[in-house]
Amino acid sequence: RDKGAMRAALEAAGVPQPAYRLVAPTDDVATLALKVGLPCVVKPLALSASRGVIRADSPAGAAAVAERVRAILAEAGEPADAALLVERYLPGEEVAIEGLLRGGRLELLALFDKPDPLEGPYFEETLFVTPSRHPVGLQEELCVAAGRAAAALGLTEGPVHAELRTDGERVWVLELAARSIGGLCSRALRFGVGVTLEELILRHALGLELGDVTRERPAAGVMMLPIPRAGVLERVGGQEEARAVEGIEDLVISVASGRPVRPLPEGDRYLGFLFARAETPEQVERALREAHGRLEVAIGAPRAQSPAASVGADVLSSTGGTPRRAQ
Length: 327
Known about the structure:
Blueprint: H1 3-12, E1 20-23, H2 29-36, E2 40-44, E3 54-56, H3 59-75, E4 84-88, E5 93-102, E6 105-113, E7 127-130, H4 136-152, E8 158-166, E9 171-177, E10 190-191, E11 195-196, H5 197-205, E12 219-225, E13 231-237, H6 239-243, E14 248-253, E15 260-261, E16 272-278, H7 281-294, E17 296-300, H8 307-319
Antiparallel strand pairs: 1-4, 2-3, 2-4, 5-6, 5-8, 7-12, 8-9, 10-11, 12-16, 13-15, 13-17, 14-16
Helix pairs in contact: 2-3, 3-8
C-alpha cells in the first residue's frame, strides 16, 4: 500500500488527519517540516510495524531523520530515493480499531487502547487492551472516523485495521489498511462462542453466515515484547514465572536464540507476544506489565553495524537526544 495515496484520499474526503507533505529526494526537508509544523514525524510510504517512523523536533533534525529513513529503506530492499511522508506530530492517546466492512458499513469488532504513550522519537507499540476505557461518546467518534476513512479509500468489504489518535476531544486518523491486525495479536480476540478473527474473515469472504460477532465478555490484551537493544538473542529467562501471573493466557517467543535482533526504527519484528484475559481492562494491563517484568532478556554483543544504524547514531543528537521508550 502507499501511505501517500492514503493521505491524499483522506484529505479529499475531509477525513481528520495530520497535516502532511510528500518529500522527494531533492526537496528541502527542513523547509517542509516547518510548513507542516513541529514537532513532526518522518516515515516511509510502504514499510510496516512502525519501521522507519521517527519524530523530529527541529528542521535540522527532520533533515537528518530523512537520511536515516532512506538508509532503512535501502536496507529493506526498497528504493532509497522513494518519496517520504513528513507529518505533523499529534499529541494524545492512540487507539487501534479492528473492524469488518459489510456492504460499505464498518462493523466494530474491537477497539484497543494503547496504554503506553507513543511520543517518539520512535513509535514502538507494546500494549493493546480491549475494551477501551475511553468515554463511550469518544469511542463512537473514533469508529465514525474510521468508517469515513474506509469509505474515502473505496473499501466496501472485508477486514479493516485502523490507527487513530485523540486528545480527548478531537480524533485523527493516522492509518487505515484493508487487513486484520498484524503479528499474533489476533489471538487476543474471540467472538461469540469462541470464534477466531480469522474464521470471521474467512466466513465473510466466502459469503457464509457469520453468526454472533460480539467480542467475548472478558477484557483481553496483548503485549508485543519490545527488543531492548541490538545484538544476538542469547535467551529469554523467566518464562515460566511470567506464565504464572494471574490472567496471563499465553506467552510466545517468536525469535529463536542465536538470532540477531534490533530495536526500532531499524528493526522489523518483536521479541514475542504476551496474552492476557481478565474481568477488567485494568486487570489485563496489570497482568501484562507484571509478566513482562518477570522476563529476563539476555542479548549478546551485536554483529557488524548496519549503514542505517550508523546514520542513526548521528541523527539522535540532532533530533533531541535519548529515545523515549515506553516502559
